[in-house]
Amino acid sequence: MTRASETPADPTAGPAGVRSARALRRAADPADPTGAPGPRTPGTAGPAGRAGWRARLLAPVADRGNALHPGAWWLWALGLAVAASRTTNPLVLGLIVGVAGYVVAARRTDAPWARSYGAFVKLGLFVVALRIVFSVALGSPIPGTHVLFTLPEVPLPAWAQGIRLGGRVTAEQVVFALYDGLKLAALLICVGAANALANPARLLKSLPGALYEAGVAVVVAMTFAPNLVADVVRLRTARRLRGRPAGGVRAVLHIGLPVLEGALERSVAVAASMDARGYGRTARVPPAVRRTTNVLTLGGLLGVCAGSYGLLAAQGAGYGLPLLAAGLAAAVGGLRLGGRRSVRTRYRPDRFGPRSWLVAASGIAVAVLMIRANAYAPDALHPGVVPLTAPELPLWPALSVLPGLLPAVIAPVPPAREESSA
């Protein structure tokens, strides 16, 4: 056993055992044997300091103070969805899905809702398969000459003209169904990216007071399935550790009861917390304000729906944006008036910081650039199937999708991911 007096002394330590500044510099930079400080200008901190500041500027570790606003993630994802709705080119759609998947892989947390992205990807693949099956079974108005196979055709009455069950299946109709299904799948995957990145509880806190009750119901419904899946995974892992089978009908019966019990306990806890926070209690407002609120909100939502349809439709880009802006203005006015009925308060409300604005702007930029690309490259964004040709990747529309990668660089890194990378 070594005594304290036998411990070798640190030659760089001072009287109190504290290492000198020169020794600390020598330890930080072994290439400098003298440890002498180099020339420094005001406002600089050397190469290591500059690298540290650069890392903090690009991707700081997420905490309560610098976390992105959940609305920024939704604006970014909706921008990608609008871009996906403006094309049927499978290469461009694959690029959009790749951008969304890369950002999700780089910035999602380990929370239960963050695991929903894989479910949306599987749902998108199911939609593609279902669209092709419907096209094969019910026929398609797309003419084609490349017959793949012929199914037995079911005769239908005269009043069902235009509907066909079975018959010829051509390569042109299958490719058309594939392009259409890929567009729907890309829309679902973009929405899944927003669900995986945006915290639903923080999104609920950011909702206007008029939508708080509806928002609570939506958040409870959204978090129920991920928590249920997490309970199933936890119980199956516990059964494996105990040497019991985790598959089969008997295992499902043994796992189902604890899962339902946990769901019931969470429901009771959520109901008690909602009651303790005054859920459903409203203030009195004048009847005129209430009627004005209803008119503005209903008219604004109709305008938003019509404007969104115009933006998503092939020929509605001209009137879609003004109608969407007018609907948003009316809806915001109605929601602000409707917020007078809410008596709740907010503790430390989330704010749109510079990074949140940049993330939202990157998604909006992708949508605007893709809408603009339809004006100068419509044939490349909508490849034809008659005659059947291979799609090509257009250069400028493909580059228009790349701004969507900006959140993977500037969004704060989740703490768990930072620790694993270290």
TrEMBL record:
<feature type="transmembrane region" description="Helical">
    <location>
        <begin position="319"/>
        <end position="337"/>
    </location>
</feature>
<keyword id="KW-0812">Transmembrane</keyword>
<dbReference type="InterPro" id="IPR003339">
    <property type="entry name" value="ABC/ECF_trnsptr_transmembrane"/>
</dbReference>
<feature type="transmembrane region" description="Helical">
    <location>
        <begin position="294"/>
        <end position="313"/>
    </location>
</feature>
<feature type="transmembrane region" description="Helical">
    <location>
        <begin position="210"/>
        <end position="233"/>
    </location>
</feature>
<feature type="transmembrane region" description="Helical">
    <location>
        <begin position="117"/>
        <end position="138"/>
    </location>
</feature>
<feature type="region of interest" description="Disordered">
    <location>
        <begin position="1"/>
        <end position="50"/>
    </location>
</feature>
<protein>
    <submittedName>
        <fullName>Energy-coupling factor transporter transmembrane component T</fullName>
    </submittedName>
</protein>
<keyword id="KW-0472">Membrane</keyword>
<keyword id="KW-1133">Transmembrane helix</keyword>
<feature type="transmembrane region" description="Helical">
    <location>
        <begin position="357"/>
        <end position="375"/>
    </location>
</feature>
<feature type="transmembrane region" description="Helical">
    <location>
        <begin position="73"/>
        <end position="105"/>
    </location>
</feature>
<feature type="compositionally biased region" description="Low complexity">
    <location>
        <begin position="30"/>
        <end position="50"/>
    </location>
</feature>
